[in-house]
Amino acid sequence: MAGRVGGSGRADGTGRRGRDGGRTLELTEVHRFANRPVRLPGSLRWDVLGLHRGVLDGLGRAARAYDVASIGIDSWAVDYGLLDADGQLLGNPHHYRDGRTEGMAERVRSRVPADELYRITGLQHLPFNTVLQLTAAAGSAQLGVARTLLMIPDLLTHWLTGSVGAEATNASTTGLFDARAGEWSGALMDRLGIDRGLFPPLRRPGDAAGTLLPYVAAETGLPESTPVTAVASHDTASAVAGVPATGPGFAYVSCGTWSLAGLELAAPVITEASRAANFTNELGLDGSYRFLRNVMGLWLLSESLRTWADRGQPAELGPLLEQADGSRPFAALVDPDDPSFLAPGDMPARIAAYCARTGQRPPVDRAATVRCVLESLALAHRAALRTAAELSGTDIRVVHLVGGGSRNELLCRLTADATGLPVVAGPAEATALGNILVQARAQGLVGDRAALRRLIAATQPLRRYEPGGDARAWSAAAERVGLG
Questions:
Q1: In degrees to the nearest 10, what's the CA dihedral of 125, 130, 135, 141?
Q2: Per-residue pLDDT reduced to its tens digit, 343-356
Q3: Burial class (CB in 10 A: 0-12, 13-18, 19+), 251
Q4: Rounded CA separation 105/117 (Å)
Q5: Cα-flanking dihedrals φ and ψ of residue 233, to 5°?
Q6: pLDDT of 279-322, one tens digit each?
Q7: Known catalytic membership, residue 235
Q8: Cα 101 to Cα 38, 75, 134, distances in angstroms
Q9: Catalytic residue chosen out of the listed positions 235, 335, 337, 417
Q10: pTM here?
């Protein structure tokens, strides 16, 4: 199986090869390539052609080393490419951190009130949702000639196969999807003045997406008959599929650039209380729902590291985490979702400015800044999971922290202390595993969702952190930063 080839929550694309032998599961990285946005006059864009080149290179390496049984693509959500009537891409897709959606929420709400929009979509308000991007693009020459909209993984799949489709887990993040019906909401598109003809038919995880075009076969050395399988193409949906839970009562934190903290449910929770708490209901594997809140995540840490490196002060993360572990607890705290932290830039300066604005002494050094970020994230995880449990009537017994953040021992320990719950860390590559096992299941190599998770739990390295620390101190810190 050839696995994930795009990525949110990381600054690279990856090609994975997995092998499932029923009782064993191996994951090998065969290629890694950069995924860097490009600043153009007046906009921030994705280098999607560079991503496609990386995909082809990765598949070529996989073809030379292995027998490739299937290919599946996942990536981040909300961003899209537009095709013209000839099927040609109309410019590089906008990056969700681009500022063009400023003020668009008010324009959408003038046509569809916020409470009604939530009743239809069940979607958390984020300043870059697809519906806001399309509202910002209204009247543009590009949108005027567009005939098809493809989310990023669907666009990359299209270039491999020539087929056109919209994978449902990613479609559910657009703000144009009926959460209860599990379908596009044409009526909502009409009310917002968005052409419903842009949106292709839906695919579900496990559906066949086609086979390779001749040029892809020639570029990669793979047979044209190689199948491309629709996976849970929103990377968080694949990550949640890859959570190694072996029983009920689990919560998850898929932690990378973003922390997606919540529950897997059989039905959406669409209430006024869940809207007020800004919780989202997005599709998961097998018609499940990911009831979660997006938290800004390790973006604050990665941008801080980048800023220090740009100043000629690079720091190795390992020693910095050790120093942070010894820093004074709760010296400074931030709300990770404060809008000032969204755009790229000087994150340590923004953290210091937030602290000054809220009457706190800014972090005294780099280790204290890292401690501030990780304690604040742990508090945000605590707040999101407690609210999810309350809104859904669910008892949480264990938290599974997956993704790159699972390698951060200090963050895992702080999350256990903050939540008062055991944290099982790993796998770091939950997204790749979820992607590959959906492909394996489509070929009859693994059973249902529970069997898929049991296989991951039995074969992947996991680490358990029991809660400790002063519960009252964590509660006081949560109140101080408004995350109680």
A1: 160
A2: 899 999 999 999 99
A3: buried
A4: 11
A5: -80, -15
A6: 999 999 999 999 999 999 999 999 999 999 999 998 899 999 99
A7: yes
A8: 18, 21, 9
A9: 235
A10: 0.92
